[in-house]
TrEMBL record:
Gene it is expressed from: tsaD
Record field: catalytic activity: L-threonylcarbamoyladenylate + adenosine(37) in tRNA = N(6)-L-threonylcarbamoyladenosine(37) in tRNA + AMP + H(+)
Record note on cofactor: Binds 1 Fe(2+) ion per subunit.
EC class (word): transferase
Record-linked InterPro entries: ATPase_NBD, Gcp-like_dom, KAE1/TsaD, TsaD
Subcellular location: Cytoplasm
Name of the protein in its database record: tRNA N6-adenosine threonylcarbamoyltransferase
Annotated residues for binding of Fe cation: H111, H115, D302
Top-level division of the source organism's lineage: Bacteria
The protein's required cofactors: Fe(2+)
Amino acid sequence: MKILAIETSCDETACAILKDGEKILTNLVASQEELHRRYGGIVPELASRKHMEVILPLTQEALERANLGLEEIDAVCVTNGPGLIGSLVIGVSFAKALAYGRKIPLIACDHINAHILAVFLEKEKPPFPFVALVVSGGHTALFWVKDYLEFYLLGQTRDDAAGEAFDKVAKLLGLGYPGGRIISRLAEEGNPDLIPLPRPMLDKPGFDFSFSGLKTAVVNYVNDLKLKGLSVPIHDLCAAFEKAVVEVLKEKAVAALLATNCQHLVLAGGVAANKRLRETLKHEAQKRNFKLYLPSPEFCTDNAAMIAVCGYHKYLRGEFASLDLDVYARANF
Ligand code: KG4
Ligand code: ZN
């Protein structure tokens, strides 16, 4: 069974072909980083236009690399939300055309559901139920995951997502876009314990997060130094910021495991590519005796292989979409 997956929810055009739910035949990602860099963030209109330009050649290349003709594809699945509406519409319209033209099923996938399922592309797969920590540019949330397509929200950010905070702090420090990877690289050469930053929400029960206050603490720290005519210790500040984010994520994830009496934690989303977060959770897993499942970085950031996994499980259940499939901007959990 071969499924072709399309992902265009944000600033990556991605196409993957998956065989029998786990064998990746192709997994292509065309990043728009270059296009948006000079604006210091994603410009939605430009993102949609780029998706439109890239999606057909990218899909053709995916088929070529897998040595397949379109007639050998059994179903087409596509992200229809959450994300940028203009971007989603391009992927969904394209997928509809393929499904209609080939008379094959069309399957709609939720982007967050797919992030949670990225771990199933790895050899070691978690047993259900597990707790998933999804940390991306648009979302930061903890879920109790009962099955491939059944998951319940335990808590989420009340303001900025973790990745968004990374990106905003990077912009503030004039480090460029996208900020997560840049901050993480600079942090490696800094001391995380020199600049005191808050650990938002750790003093509160529950599993919600908040990162905008942390971002403001960085702004205030920088402004204060500037007023005094002092230079900003970029490496130490990046390290301190990264450590603060990671500690909050770790503490809330551990609390969620304890509250649900679960021994399996899955990490997902773009920020899951962060080295400090991965190492900290590995260490915590050893200390507290829970099992940690980490998708490789290429499956953490946006990709279509994870969409294909989600699509596959919907295919098995006969959950098909009709040609009037719509898109949605905000998460519906
Ligand atoms: O999941 P993703 O690719 O797209 C969304 O669905 O949002 O996540 C992108 C986010 C961006 O905010 C980016 O800065 C962050 O993930 N990110 C990182 C790292 N790599 C990507 N954040 C921290 N450390 C990283 N190594
Ligand atoms: Zn994502």
